[in-house]
Write a structure and sequence with these properties.
Helices cover 61% and strands 14% of the residues. With 70 residues, it is an alpha+beta fold. It has a two-stranded antiparallel sheet with strand order 1-2. Strand 1 and strand 2 form a beta hairpin. The chain is elongated. The chain starts with a helix and ends with a helix. The mean pLDDT is 92.
Length: 70
């Protein structure tokens, strides 16, 4: 749920909800309403979101490696 993501990031639930809407609009995540409580939205990383995360992870690792070589 978005509330769990908000807690993990140290953000307010409304802020996290706004971020989730933007990420969903550009196709990086998918959200769905819980069947038992329509106020609760679950978040899942989409295939394009996972691909972007892998690209970013490789770039961060390369940047760290270049700093370590200095």
């Amino acid at each position: 749920p978005i509330s769990a993501v908000a807690r993990a990031l140290g953000l307010h639930v409304s802020t996290t909800g706004q971020l989730a809407k933007r990420l969903e609009q550009v196709g990086l995540i998918e959200t769905c309403r819980a069947a038992t409580d329509r106020r609760v939205r679950a978040i899942r990383v989409s295939e394009p979101g996972a691909a972007l995360a892998q690209i970013l992870q490789r770039r961060v690792e390369a940047a760290i490696a270049s700093v370590d070589r200095r």
